[in-house]
Amino acid sequence: MERRQFLGSLAAASLIPRYAFAQNTPQRLLASVHRQQILPASYPDTEMWSFGSTFPGPLLRARQGDRLAIAVENALPQPTAVHWHGLRLDNAMDGVPGVTQQPIPVGATFDYEFALPDAGTYWYHSHAKSMEQIERGLYGPLIIDESDAPDVDQDITIVVDDIRLEQDGTITGFDNFHDLSHAGRIGNLWLANGQIDPAYPLKRGERVRIRLISAANARVFTLGVQGLEGWVVALDGMPLADPQALPDELVLAPAQRMDLIVDVTTDQNEAFLITFERDGGYAIAHFPVSGPAAAARSGRVILPPNPDYPIDLVQARTATLLIEGGAMGGMRAARVDGEQLDARSLAGRGLFWALNGIAGRPETPLLDLSLGESARIGMANNTAFPHAMHLHGMHFSDVLPDGSLGPLRDTLLLNPQETREIAFQAHNPGNWLFHCHMLAHHQAGMGTWIRVSA
Ligand code: C2O
Ligand code: CU
What we know:
The chain is mostly beta strands. Helix content is 6%, strand content 44%. The chain has helices spanning 3-7, 130-135, 177-181, 343-348, 439-443; strands at residues 28-36, 46-51, 60-63, 67-74, 82-85, 109-115, 120-126, 139-145, 154-163, 189-192, 202-203, 207-214, 221-226, 228-235, 238-245, 250-252, 257-264, 270-277, 280-290, 317-325, 333-336, 339-342, 353-355, 367-370, 374-381, 387-391, 396-399, 405-409, 411-414, 419-425, 430-436, 447-453.
């Protein structure tokens, strides 16, 4: 699909109704098929799979320290399960079929209920056939409010995505070997909260919290803001102890989040959220700016910290993770269920990637940890593609080249040929997935797991 076709239609974007967030947590979340206009109005609408009959699913919002109880009812044509991405929750509620629960059969309901120890910006998404189900729309934002939230005039959540749509509005072409063995399923249409370039009106001088969430299947977004100035205050839900002034480029890999607190400083009547592409920057959302300047605030905002689980780098158990495979990766063979297969037989099973020589989730965990133990994992991306490695159930820190610990994250981007090390305290008991969030890569072999025994 020709991108400029859509870029030409941006003038009409302010006519699109603003995405309305539900303010209350529904007790019941229906996963079902519905139709929604995703392409510009002159094109057909799209059959989406969604939560709450809206794409993205409703914004779920709760307070830090509360419990969240949600009954997910499956009215889809396939089994499903819901993962609450980034929450340090009870393992049984983690939503991973085959690891923490059986998939929710068609027509059945599963009751999720868990405590919320952390505040921040998270999201929920299907974890069953996720390459297909997330692309079809099964995701939504999840916000946990600080009991002591910073003072802002507006709190805006923007879920960015790139969807791959045919001209007739359909979503097709899953399981194609090119996506599985290359970068993954890259879309042809950028969306913010399910819309093409939506508008979020701002007042001059306002202070605004902007929560960015990437629900992209595989694209690594490089975003920027124009007309707003401030700080990055949290990554992957976790507050930064030392917020940095907003850089020109905000790299957001699949599943990553970034909280910004910005002041509306432009003297123009519009500010922008931009995606930088090879051929320039394009608005992915915009902010009409009006009014005389409100009394501007000053001073940096630091969010209150979430519970801390200190990492002992010296006593830590260590593991290494060699990431191999993909097109131009030269991987000759890998083990699958204990059997050594050559590249050709692997491809025959739709497998193209391996972690430590194993394609698909191994029988034994990468690390078998006792509760409270620290761990370090050195990762080497020996492939021609970027990967976004996500650990369930616990956040980790990047071990920086000088040996200090970087900010807590739950998803880390590794560029081609890059080597990184992460460290965490095994504070949450259970079996936790550790996989690439480029969903095609996970499906095609890039997933392992970690056990934390109480
Ligand atoms: Cu966002 Cu294994 O998931
Ligand atoms: Cu990957």
